[in-house]
Design brief:
Layout: E1 8-13, H1 17-26, E2 32-37, E3 49-52, H2 54-62, H3 66-69, E4 81-87, E5 95-102, E6 110-113, H4 114-123, H5 127-132, E7 134-135, E8 140-146, E9 151-156, E10 161-164, E11 166-169, H6 176-186, H7 192-199, E12 205-217, H8 218-225, E13 236-240, E14 243-250, E15 255-263, H9 271-276, E16 293-295, H10 298-304, H11 310-317, E17 323-329, E18 337-338, E19 341-343, H12 346-349, H13 358-374, H14 383-412, H15 418-421, H16 423-431, H17 443-455
Parallel strand pairs: 1-2, 1-11, 2-7, 4-13, 11-19
Antiparallel strand pairs: 3-6, 4-5, 8-9, 9-10, 12-15, 12-17, 13-14, 14-15, 16-17, 18-19
Helix pairs in contact: 1-4, 1-13, 2-13, 6-7, 13-14, 13-17, 14-17
């Protein structure tokens, strides 16, 4: 954003939901100049559906966005936001064993088409920001920190460079910003073990799980089922041993978002070796040269759900050309910032998606970071402190989400854990308070507490 006399400048790397939300939040501060650099030729989002929950809604409400969000919201038909959990690996008909309510009267709580949400957020950026401060086809390769003048120099794949007071990496799970930040911090260490401890967070790891994704037409699945599918209105978790489906309506019930998770632990091409007990160590990880997202035959997906109930299979049969996504995650980072550089969203805490928190965590990060940078305490000389306040408010909570999401995936797939084996115990766990902490608390209060703590610590 252009500013006549800015206190400092901010470079945002990445134009996903987190990066654009940060731009929106920073646009509220006329004394901060910012630019957003996106690697693609236009704003784009991969994936289909996303749920927005209470904590993110508090942030979006404070930014004045709730009423306009309602125009693309697909609320649940239930009296409160809820998920139905079904034991679905029972053919031909499974059974519901739990219902988890997320009781809230907040406007905006519901399901969104991810691309529609990003498009809406972009449209809400001030016109001069869209015209002057957005830069496409700018893929960050590396950056340099100049301690003498407090500037960060960014080098892009097209050979161009740019400078800024602050560098924020909202550049996803493969984040070059994160890799550079960790390398910069590790270089200060004299102990090789400590260097290795820091650098192990640079690259994502395969979780052992894949997902088949698709958007299903409500009319098409009704034709297969002979009646309207319940998922045109309600959110369903179809649970089974080592596989589950997350299904909910978007686009006002005209479309159904389907994400079908399978715990493979080995790649399809290594199944024979795994069965024979001859699997090599390097075959237990996702090869670096293998795409994370690939088109696969429908038969591969359907085979993974053999024995599931008919209403779940009907949804999968509508996905004629599924894509298979390798689910990667990060080891929880020990820090989110170093000097005048910080990371947010998947660049900071990419996790398995089983708690539905990816977009929500990015929104909370962006909102908190803007509060810290926009604080009256934040000046060109105190940027590292402002970024530390952001880290203090977000790191512990976001890293807890990583652990929680992994645990939720195991729960949804009846993994071999006594806590999850019996449906009555699982029902009590789901309908209890197992994830209520995800939705309570105020990001604003947490940010303000962290800002006061960092700047008034002396």
């Amino acid at each position: 954003m252009t500013a006549s006399n800015p206190k400092f400048s901010v470079a945002i790397i990445g134009g996903g939901i987190g990066g654009v939300t940060l731009a929106l939040a920073l646009s509220k501060y006329p004394d901060i100049r910012f630019d957003l650099y996106e690697a693609a030729g236009a704003f784009e989002e991969i994936g289909a559906g996303v749920g927005i929950f209470a904590r993110s809604l508090y942030a979006l409400e404070d930014l004045g966005l709730i009423d306009v969000l309602e125009t693309i919201n697909t609320p649940s038909s239930l009296s409160a936001n809820a998920w139905d959990y079904r034991k679905a690996d029972l053919y031909p008909t499974g059974k519901q064993f739990a219902r988890r309510f997320y009781a809230t009267d907040l406007k905006g709580s519901g399901n969104y088409h991810r691309a529609q949400l990003l498009t809406l957020l972009v449209s809400l950026l001030p016109e001069h920001v869209r015209n002057q401060c957005i830069h496409f086809k700018k893929r960050l390769v590396r950056y340099e920190n100049d301690a003498t003048n407090g500037q960060v120099t960014m080098h892009f794949a097209d050979g161009s460079t740019a400078t800024s007071s602050v560098l924020i990496g909202a550049d996803g799970i493969k984040s070059p910003t994160r890799q550079g930040m960790l390398a910069e911090r590790a270089a200060l260490e004299t102990d090789d073990a400590e260097k290795a401890r820091i650098l192990k967070h640079a690259l994502p790891r395969w979780s052992g799980m894949v997902a088949y994704r698709g958007l299903v037409s409500a009319d098409e699945v009704a034709a297969i089922s002979g009646k309207p599918h319940r998922c045109t209105k309600d959110r369903i978790m179809y649970c089974g041993r080592n596989a589950h489906l997350v299904v909910f309506p978007i686009a006002m019930g005209k479309k159904i978002n389907v994400v079908a998770f399978v715990s493979k632990n080995v790649l399809p091409e290594h199944k024979a070796a795994a069965a024979a007990g001859t699997l090599k160590d390097d075959e237990r990880t996702w090869p670096q040269d293998k795409p994370w997202i690939e088109p696969v035959p429908q038969e591969e997906m359907l085979e993974a759900y053999d024995g599931f109930e008919e209403e779940a299979i009907a949804l999968l049969k509508c996905i004629k050309s599924p894509s298979r996504w390798a689910i990667h995650e990060l080891d929880p980072l020990p820090f989110y910032t170093h000097g005048n550089v910080a990371v947010l969203g998947d660049a900071a805490h990419a996790t398995q998606p089983h708690a539905g928190q990816g977009a929500n965590q990015s929104i909370e990060d962006a909102y908190t970071l803007a509060l810290a940078l926009g604080s009256s305490y934040a000046t060109a000389q105190t940027i590292p402190k402002a970024l530390k306040a952001y880290e203090q408010a977000r790191l512990t909570r976001a890293n807890e989400v990583i652990a929680h999401s992994s645990k939720a995936g195991k729960m949804h797939q009846f993994m071999k854990d006594p806590e999850y084996d019996a449906l009555d115990r699982l029902k009590a766990y789901i309908e209890g308070n197992w994830n209520r902490w995800l939705f309570i608390g105020s990001p604003k209060e947490e940010a303000e507490a962290a800002i006061n703590s960092v700047f008034n610590a002396d």
